[in-house]
Amino acid sequence: MNPEPANNLFDSRTAVLAAVVQVVLVIATALVLALLLPKSFFESWGWLSGPVAWLVCAAITALILKLDLPRAVFGAALVGIPSVVFVILGLHWLGALVAAALFGVWCGRYAARRLTAPASA
Fold this sequence. Notes:
The protein is mainly alpha-helical.
């Protein structure tokens, strides 16, 4: 018998954990890269290195939280798209926070589905 109600469409614990872990990993990655690489690298290659770092952090978040890896990375790619608007507006880090919150929602949504899915026989 599944202890979760069948109409539970959102796992808030997973959502919060996914968002927090993603933010911590992205900040840690940014700090390490900022220490190791010159500013000119980010001016030339930020358009590529930022999204790659975001996806790698999402993969690590999925592994830490034992989430479905392909689904988490796919979700991270989707929620990263709106952050491009923030980058264009010069609000890069606000966009990263919004994307992390959306990533948490994505993870909380599919984690709830996993919890309420009928057990296979």
